[in-house]
Specification:
60% helix; three-stranded mixed β-sheet; globular; alpha/beta; four-stranded mixed β-sheet
């Protein structure tokens, strides 16, 4: 394996042995790269599943029916995901193939930025990080792909690459402004995107100190970096807030931030059910879930080579100043996003993507550093351990669709049959102008409505918010608003899902709202299809023949 640029290896291995080891490692990387390419091609046939269909349907409502997020379409997340899907759909459409192609292109762009960041450690290091992260991403179940954490990583990685480069070194203010804009774009996806922002600004300033003599002692330069970075954030978010004021969606958005986000913080997802967690239980629940890594598919083993490298780094003086700066920035970015996952306390696989991204790069650097100390017992042990951890993390994943394709089966998701059945049933009754209302949360109905191009009857695409802290005034207000809208303009179809969806259990739920919904449905709708865990209901008409 090649030594990092600028490093001096004190005791080289015999040339033939070193060439043999390098050839063997290049062969492993070549095989993994080929496998990544095959996996990417196979992934083009995977279906939209889980959050992807949810946000794409919201994008459809925005594009085709003029819905305004938060005003006409109730959502409790930041606006980036919905408008990312809406903009993407204007360019490539709504098909699964188009979005799978976009996913692969997005991944290729992210891996290219990864290569640029680690190029100073040599091609082997950059190649290792790019291939390993690409595989760890695509080896997830399809429900974890195109998540918000993944989408926001491209602007974050771009900001990191800019901070570590000498580009715009003589246009310091514009450089930090650009970093702020990139983090502002990432922040539209999820709040944890901002965690690495101060880290990247600090190390951008430190990188410039290596170029401009005397800059380190200037407090004005540090203040200017913070100021222009913050202005970059404002360049993204100020137009968003102004637009919300213009269309009348700022008030419902702020209501969701002030009232709904604290409610959601009381619940944790356990086995597809949201349950309440008291303040006393939250610490132990979070600690236990973190230590188990039960949703991480054993990728926590990648912390082992990173910890070994931290132990070794203090005795390794062969890093150049730039290389040392890169390592420190990656370490702090990893710790910032690791803290974010622990603080939120929901350990979904996609929550780990930002931390995992920086962790993979640190492991790639560790591997290169250890490979240059193979004359010592520690070097042999650490190199073998790093390789074993990387390969173990890759082989522990179980991509269900890819395994099915490898066996010659179609890459069906657990909801494929449900979506197909629902589409066939509703199509037989569908008339122009019909609307539908799901009583569901990520149980497949959003894909049905998207495929059939049916608009949503109320602002509420999912019913989960109605059952979170049911005694809270904000939740009661949503319940009454939903019932009032349903009574004023009853949709032609209701799709009720009782299996294979996310539920919530509130011990204080008195059942009144559930009874009101059930009474309204029984009085105004007839069941036209009973499937395994779902129903299709159609509005009763005065003229029975009008249903046909």
């Amino acid at each position: 394996m090649n030594a990092p640029a600028g490093a001096v290896s004190p005791r080289d291995l015999p040339p033939k042995l070193r060439s043999g080891l390098r050839l063997a490692y290049v062969a492993i990387l070549s095989f993994l790269t080929l496998f990544l390419g095959v996996l990417a091609l196979y992934s083009l046939r995977w279906e939209l599943f889980w959050d992807q269909g949810y946000y794409l349907y919201q994008g459809f409502l925005v594009n085709e029916h003029g819905y305004v997020l938060y005003r006409d379409l109730s959502d409790f997340n930041l606006p980036g995901a919905t408008y990312f899907m809406a903009l993407g759909a204007r360019l490539i459409g709504y098909s699964s193939l188009a979005w799978r192609c976009l996913d692969v292109v997005w991944l290729a762009a992210l891996l290219s930025v990864t290569w640029v960041m680690l190029a100073g450690f040599g091609r082997i290091c950059a190649w290792t990080a790019a291939v390993c992260f690409g595989l760890l991403y695509l080896l997830q179940p399809e429900s974890q792909l195109l998540q918000r954490e993944y989408v926001m990583m491209l602007p974050i990685a771009g900001a990191c690459a800019l901070a570590l480069s000498t580009r715009l070194a003589h246009r310091i203010h514009f450089r930090h402004l650009a970093i702020g804009v990139l983090f502002g774009l990432a922040l539209t996806m999820k709040p944890p995107a901002i965690l690495a922002f101060p880290v990247v600004l600090y190390f951008s300033h430190r990188r410039l100190c290596l170029v401009h003599e005397g800059l380190a002692a200037s407090w004005k330069a540090k203040a200017a970096a913070c100021l222009f970075g913050f202005l970059g954030l404002c360049l993204v978010w100020a137009p968003i807030f102004l637009w919300m004021v213009w269309v009348g969606s700022l008030s419902p958005f702020m209501d969701s931030v002030i009232y709904y986000w604290p409610i959601m913080g009381k619940y944790k997802l356990v086995h597809l059910s949201y349950i309440t967690i008291t303040s006393r239980e939250k610490m132990w629940f979070t600690l236990g879930a973190f230590l188990e890594f039960r949703n991480l598919h054993r990728r926590e083993v990648l912390m082992i080579p990173m910890l070994l490298y931290l132990m070794h780094q203090g005795r390794d003086a062969r890093l150049t100043a730039t290389q040392n700066l890169i390592v420190r920035m990656l370490q702090w970015c990893f710790l910032a996003h690791l803290f974010g996952v622990i603080a939120v306390g929901n350990f979904h696989p996609y929550n780990w993507i930002p931390a995992l991204y920086f962790l993979v790069m640190l492991c790639a650097i560790a591997l290169v550093r250890f490979s240059n100390t193979l004359r010592s017992g520690f070097g042999y042990f650490a190199t073998a351990t790093t390789l074993a951890c990387l390969l173990f993390a890759l082989t522990r994943a179980r991509p269900e669709s890819f395994i099915k394709q490898w066996r010659g089966l179609p890459p069906k998701t657990p909801l494929t049959d449900r979506v197909t059945d629902l589409e066939a049933v509703i199509r037989n009754y569908l008339r122009p102008g019909d609307k539908a209302q799901p009583l569901d949360f990520l149980g497949g109905t959003e894909r049905v409505l998207l495929n059939l191009k049916i608009p949503l009857a109320t602002p509420y695409l999912v019913d989960l918010p109605f059952y979170l802290s049911t005694q809270d005034p904000f939740v009661k207000g949503m319940q009454q608003d939903f019932l009032q809208r349903m009574r004023q303009e009853p949709p032609r179809f209701i799709i009720a899902v009782s299996r294979g969806r996310l539920f919530v259990y509130d011990p204080a739920d008195d059942g009144i709202f559930r009874a009101e919904v059930e009474a309204f449905v029984v009085a105004n709708y007839a069941v036209i299809w009973n499937g395994p865990g779902y129903q299709v209901l159609i509005r009763l008409e005065k003229n029975p023949d009008a249903q046909q």
